[in-house]
Specification:
It is a single chain. The protein is mainly α and 223 residues long. It has a single domain (1-223), classed as Hypothetical protein, domain 2 (Endonuclease III, domain 1), CATH 1.10.340.30. The chain is built from nine helices and two strands, in the order ββααααααααα. It has helices at residues 46-54, 63-76, 81-94, 100-104, 108-115, 124-139, 146-151, 172-183, 191-200; strands spanning 30-31, 37-38. A two-stranded antiparallel ribbon has the order 1-2.
């Protein structure tokens, strides 16, 4: 699911969503055998490389997609993004492909079922937050919907990082989005997690300037 993890410590916050790492590498990009330049965190692990090349930073403009990513970003808190990405198929099975109506109707029996599912992150607060956020997502339909709500916090400019150390972990917009979502009843939507979300779904472009993915989303002009 930015903040970009160093090879030895892939701890992306938010994730799918941001990639917020632990220690940051000072390296700019690594050129792969295919001749394409990527940040170090996406240059070795095939799973992370595929995610970086095809999904991270591409626009997500459907309710179910954004709800899923908010949920996964919450589950990632305190863990590595690689862990969440490997468990993503299990998360989708456990949460009915993140269909908001289905998850919003989950009962205490479902909570216990989820806490017994070794395929996902078994954290009661995070499980309950996913259910809470499904209900909040449905409620937002009367106020323009989750997609319009989240994308309304797109800033006027996006970072232009030359190295991972140039990438922020929060912004005034992510702070504002966090506060606004909390007022709408969402949980586990802190400013850093929301910055990761904004990176993951294309609201921001924090690809390094030398990366082959820079300006590939169509949201931001080439820089």
């Amino acid at each position: 699911m930015t903040t970009t993890p160093e090879l030895s410590s892939i701890t992306v916050e938010g994730g799918p969503g941001t990639i917020t790492p632990g220690p940051r590498s000072v390296n700019a990009v690594v050129v792969g055998e295919d001749g394409l330049a990527r940040p170090a965190w996406a240059a070795v692990d095939p799973m992370l490389r595929e995610y970086y090349d095809t999904e991270w930073g591409m626009p997500v403009r459907d309710e179910q997609g954004i709800y899923e990513r908010i949920s996964l970003e919450a589950f990632q808190a305190g863990l590595s993004w690689a862990t969440i990405l490997r468990k993503r198929p299990a998360f989708r099975r456990a949460f009915a492909e993140f269909h908001p109506e289905t998850v919003a109707a989950y009962t205490e029996a479902d909570v216990e079922r989820l806490l017994g599912d070794a395929g996902i992150v078994r954290n009661k607060l995070k499980v309950r937050a996913a259910i809470t956020n499904a209900k909040a997502t449905i409620a937002l339909r009367g106020d323009g919907g989750l997609v319009n709500f989240v994308w309304s916090f797109q800033p006027a400019a996006t970072p232009a990082p030359l190295s991972l150390g140039d990438i922020p972990t929060r912004s005034p917009e992510s702070v504002a989005l966090s506060k606004a979502l909390r007022k709408k009843g969402f949980a586990f939507v802190g400013p850093t997690t929301m910055y990761a979300l904004m990176e993951a779904i294309g609201i921001l472009d924090t690809h390094l300037l030398d990366s082959h993915r820079r300006s590939s989303s169509g949201v931001w002009p080439h820089t």
